Amino acid sequence: MQLLTDNLLDYQHNGKILSISDVVFPDKPEQLPPRNMPRRSFETAAGKAAFFHALAHIEFVAIYLAWDIIYRFRDLPIEFYQQWLRIADEEAQHFSLIRNHLLSLGIDYGDLPAHSGLWTHAVETCDDVLDRLAIIPRFMEARGLDVTPVMIDKLDSMSDKHGVEILTRIYQDEIGHVECGSYWFKLIAAQRGLDSEQLYKNIIAKHFKSKPKGPFNREVRIIAGFTTHEIDWLEEGIYE
Ligand SMILES: [Fe+2]
Ligand SMILES: [Fe+2]
To answer: Ligand 1 center to residue 13 CA distance, Å?
Structure first.
């Protein structure tokens, strides 16, 4: 508590931005590197619970991500902060919806280990809002737009009506999150005199050894602010 008070005073007096390494997560779930995560079949009850646990963790970290972008990057227009406040609220709603579904499956958030990858990307992009926008909304959340319809179909085939409803709601909101990321990425890049398409490619190439494998949800990515050139470039599969 003393440390928290000191930090708050420090912030109030100096406007200093605390290091991202000061961010603290709850003791549970245990966070493991992606390669150490147990693999389970989606078809079993345990596998389905593990799937929703993984989604709960993504949403939990997404709450942190929305607050971190508000906290860390200063001197942007007020609309930037207003939009990320709305996103933080939506991520909290997503987490609650999934946590309640998880409870109906017999486990709670924190009962299983969770994947540490998403926060690692936050740490890697803490120095520049353009890196953060390219990697979090315009890469990680955009991947969600590609894969969520497939998950919805899968849950539908398993007659998980409530799971389908939750993922459909989240999918609609996430289109807005990526759209918001695209809007600010392009705007801030233009203000710095940078070509946003080229910058996007450079940032992705800097952070990932290889591009994500498709298929890409072209129609929805366009709605969310991707250009056809950016999607074509992702579909090419390899860095030129
Ligand atoms: Fe979300
Ligand atoms: Fe989101």
So the answer is: 34
Ligand in nearest proximity to the CA of 69: 2
Question: 101-118 pLDDT, tens per residue?
Answer: 999 999 999 999 998 889
The CA 210 to ligand 2 mean position distance, Å, reads 23
Weakest-pLDDT range from 24-38, 75-89, 90-104, 220-234: 24-38
Which pair of tokens denotes residue 87? Answer: 């996103």
What's the gap in Å between 175 CA and the centre of ligand 2? Answer: 8
Q: How far apart are alpha carbons 239 and 37 in whole angstroms? A: 28
Diameter of the chain measured on Cα atoms: 57
Question: Nearest ligand to the C-alpha of residue 137?
Answer: 2
Q: Quick one: tokens of 226?
A: 């991707």
Q: What 3-state class would DSSP assign to 174?
A: helix
Question: How many angstroms is it from 29 CA to the middle of ligand 2?
Answer: 20
Torsion of CA 12, 15, 16, 21, to 10 degrees: 70
In angstroms, what is the span from residue 91 Cα to ligand 1's centroid? Answer: 4
- Residue ranges and CATH numbers for the domains of the chain are 2-235 (1.20.1260)
Instruction: Read off the pLDDT of residues 188-206 as tens digits, 9 standing for 90 and up.
Output: 999 999 999 999 999 999 9
Indicate yes or no: pTM above 0.85: yes
